[in-house]
Specification:
211 residues; alpha/beta; Methyltransferase, Methionine Synthase (B12-binding Domains), Chain A, domain 1; five-stranded parallel beta sheet; 58% helix; 11% strand; globular
């Protein structure tokens, strides 16, 4: 197993110390930063796939995310210096009136692991803030979370505000959370639905890959 394969394997295992040491060693030996990043992203893709298949669970995902963050400490400045662009931005938050964030945070971890730059607005976020932030940051995706049936209706407000301001088709929306269904996503005009964290990350990739 070569260095990059080992790096990907250690990340899947959640070995943050091992990933940190191996990433720094690869950098010292002149391995291109982009190749190191690709190995890390491959590992996080494996984590996402295994999580969706219920082969691993939330603690395993959190350990892998910690390992990813450890490797990015020495890697990030090299990527910037070499002009390797970060992934597309995704604005994420829990909708107005809802303060639940466990699911949202997990989706954020999976999106970061998939190479996206996550702009987390936190909880109880009004529609205007979602849209204003996406426009300001140049983010092509807004990810909306809700845990309560009484607050999931506010997802519609974000979709409608994008429509009124002429951003539909340029800024996509994905919705998810315990009470949210694919049928509800279609009903409000959302562009995608995330059943779980791994599925949400895959759905965002699919949205941005579409012609």
């Amino acid at each position: 197993m070569d260095t990059l394969d080992r790096l990907s394997h250690l990340l899947v295992e959640g070995d943050d110390r091992g990933v940190d040491v191996l990433a720094r060693d690869a950098i010292a030996r002149g391995v291109p930063a982009g190749a190191i990043l690709d190995a890390l992203l491959a590992g996080m893709t494996t984590v996402g796939d295994r999580f969706r298949q219920h082969d691993i669970f939330l603690p395993d995902v959190l350990l892998a995310a910690r390992a990813m963050r450890a490797a990015m400490v020495p890697l990030r400045p090299l990527l910037a210096a070499q002009g390797v662009a970060g992934g597309p931005k995704v604005v994420i938050g829990t909708v107005s009136g809802d303060v639940h964030d466990i699911g949202k945070n997990l989706v954020g971890i999976m999106l970061q692991g998939a190479g996206f730059e996550v702009v987390d607005l936190g909880t109880d976020v009004p529609a205007e803030r979602f849209v204003d932030t996406a426009v300001l940051m140049g983010a092509p995706v807004i990810a909306l979370s809700a845990l309560l049936t009484t607050t999931m209706v506010h997802m519609r407000g974000v979709v409608e505000l994008l429509e009124r301001r002429g951003h539909r088709g340029r800024i996509f929306t994905i919705v998810g959370g315990a009470p949210v269904t694919e049928a509800f996503a279609r009903e409000i005009g959302a562009d995608a639905y995330g059943f779980d964290a791994g599925g949400a990350a895959a759905a965002v990739r699919a949205l941005l890959a579409a012609p």
